[in-house]
Amino acid sequence: MSDRSSRDTVIAAARELFARRGYTATTIKDIAAAAGCSPALVMKLTGSKAELFAAADPSGAALDEAPPPAGEPPGVLMVRRLVERRRTDEPEPWAMASVLIRESDDPARTRADVRTRYLDAVAERIGDTAPDRLRAQLVMAQLLGLAAALRHLELLDPAAIDDETLIRRYGALVQRIVDGDG
Known about the structure:
This protein is an all-alpha fold. About 65% of the residues lie in helices and about 0% in strands.
């Protein structure tokens, strides 16, 4: 295996573990085991845990989503993807944004970078071209809140509200913001 493909494998394993467990609870040894290599190789390929975290950037996956299919409004679709990630126990990048910032060597720079990338992605999805991108900011706040509620607090459990009802109701709230009504 080449260094490039080894590094990609390590970063993919790190992204999943950081998103699932957080920075502090994820060890280099855990990442190495998930990637099928030694901890020494992980360090050789990535430098340090902090550098690996920055390279893995678990928040980035939330921005890589395809545009909404015809028929489902973007606000509903963004909520659907959050709920589906919970259902399939996939890592939740939205819920990891605060960890990425807190664990960074330069939190102010990381906060500005994450904020800009998320705002750009959300603004593009919802067609927010206003200079302040207020609608995109409001949508981000709603999605970050939902991600934290689902992942960290385990609110809105499927036993209390089925996924489709949650998607429909919360998606409608987000869509109102998208449409400029919220």
